[in-house]
Automatic annotation (TrEMBL):
Enzyme nomenclature, EC number: 4.2.1.41
Alphabetical keyword list: Lyase
Originating species: Streptomyces montanus
The protein's name: Probable 5-dehydro-4-deoxyglucarate dehydratase
Matching Gene3D superfamilies: Aldolase class I
Superkingdom of origin organism: Bacteria
Catalytic activity reported: 5-dehydro-4-deoxy-D-glucarate + H(+) = 2,5-dioxopentanoate + CO2 + H2O
Lineage: Bacteria, Bacillati, Actinomycetota, Actinomycetes, Kitasatosporales
Residues of the signal peptide: none
C-alpha cells in the first residue's frame, strides 16, 4: 500500500534520481564537507531525490556510524527540497539497524538492497522485506538484483505490504518486469512505483519506458548533471532524436568504458566527480581505481557529451 508523502514526491519524474558518491579524505576517512558540497551541487542542479549511501555511495564500505553521519548530512543539505532515501542492507537484523539509523538521521525512505551473500527462496525474501518494512516508519523501495530476484507473485505480496511503495529493478529482465507490472496492476489497487536501477539506466531508458517505467537512477548525474538532465528531458518528452544522439555519442561509449573494469560503476563515476573539480577521494577496497588511461578516456567522453549539447543550442 502506498504511503502518500514519499510516493507522491517520487512519482513525478521531475529530474533524475541522484545517487551521490561518498567522499573520503586523504586519510581514507569520510569527508563530510566534500560530501555536503557534492549533495548540494546535485540538488541545485535539479535532482528529483537524493539516494544517500546506496550502491554508488559505497554502502558496503561504510560503518554504521559513517552511514548515519552521511544520511544526516544529506538531510541537512537538502533541507526538505527533495526527499532523501537511504540504503539498507545485509541480513534482516542489520537491515533493521540501518533503517533505524536512517530514521534517526531524518531520512524520508529506504532503498532495501539485496541481503548479503545468501541466495534465498521467495518465502525467505518476502519475510525479509516484510519484517524490514514492519520495523520502521520509513517507506521502503525493494531493490531487485543479483541474489534477490522476485517472481510476480512475490512482488504482488510486497506491494500489498504496508510501507512498501516501490520496486527498483537492477536485473534487466524486461520479460520478468512486464509480468511484474502486469500482475501488480491486476491485483493491487492504487499506484506502485517502479524504477530502472541498472548501472547506467539511460542506456535502457527507451526499453523501460515501453513498459511504463520512467523513474530511474542516473550515475552520470553525479559528474555531468547537464547531460543527465538533457537526456531525462528528451526521454520524458518523447524527443527520441535527442535521446538517440546522446545514446550514440555518449552513453553507449560510457557503458563500454565502464565495462572495462570490475567496480567501475562506482569508481569510474567517482573519477568523473573529481574530473569536474570536486575532490571526493578514491574508492575503498575491495573496489579499485580506474586506470589513468580510462580516466583520460572518460574526460574525452565528457567533452564529447558537452559538444553534443551545444548542437541543440
Amino acid at each position: 500500500m502506498t504511503s502518500a508523502p514519499l510516493a507522491a514526491r517520487l512519482s513525478i519524474p521531475s529530474g533524475p534520481l541522484f545517487f551521490p558518491v561518498t567522499a573520503y579524505g586523504p586519510d581514507g576517512a569520510v569527508d563530510l564537507d566534500a560530501y555536503r558540497e557534492h549533495v548540494r551541487r546535485g540538488v541545485e542542479a535539479g535532482a528529483a531525490a537524493v539516494f544517500a549511501c546506496c550502491g554508488t555511495g559505497e554502502f558496503h564500505a561504510l560503518t554504521p556510524e559513517e552511514f548515519q553521519a552521511c544520511v544526516r548530512a544529506a538531510v541537512e543539505v537538502t533541507a526538505g527540497r527533495v526527499p532523501v532515501v537511504a540504503g539498507a542492507g545485509y541480513g534482516t537484523a542489520l537491515a533493521v539497524r540501518y533503517a533505524k539509523l536512517a530514521e534517526e538521521a531524518g531520512a524520508d525512505g529506504l532503498l532495501a538492497m539485496p541481503p548479503y551473500l545468501v541466495v534465498a527462496g521467495q518465502e525467505g525474501l518476502l519475510r525479509h522485506y516484510t519484517e524490514l518494512a514492519g520495523a520502521t516508519s520509513l517507506d521502503l523501495i525493494v531493490y531487485q538484483r543479483d541474489n534477490a530476484v522476485f517472481t510476480p507473485e512475490t512482488v504482488v505480496s510486497l506491494a500489498r505490504t504496508e510501507g512498501i511503495i516501490g520496486f527498483k529493478d537492477g536485473l534487466g529482465d524486461l520479460d520478468l518486469m512486464q509480468r511484474i507490472v502486469s500482475a501488480v496492476r491486476s491485483e493491487v489497487p492504487g499506484d506502485f512505483l517502479y524504477f530502472n536501477g541498472l548501472p547506467t539506466a539511460e542506456l535502457t531508458g527507451l526499453a523501460y519506458r515501453g513498459i511504463g517505467i520512467t523513474l530511474y537512477s542516473s550515475a552520470v548525474f553525479c559528474f555531468a548533471p547537464e547531460l543527465a538532465l538533457a537526456f531525462h528531458k528528451a526521454l520524458n518528452s518523447g524527443d527520441d532524436a535527442t535521446v538517440n544522439r546522446l545514446l550514440d555519442g555518449f552513453w553507449r561509449p560510457f557503458v563500454e568504458l565502464r565495462a572495462q573494469g570490475r567496480g567501475y560503476a562506482v569508481s569510474l563515476v567517482k573519477a568523473g566527480v573529481r574530473l569536474r573539480g570536486l575532490d571526493v577521494g578514491e574508492v575503498r577496497p575491495p573496489l579499485h581505481e580506474p586506470s589513468d588511461d580510462h580516466v583520460k578516456q572518460l574526460a574525452r567522453l565528457i567533452e564529447r557529451g558537452e559538444a553534443l549539447l551545444q548542437e541543440d543550442m
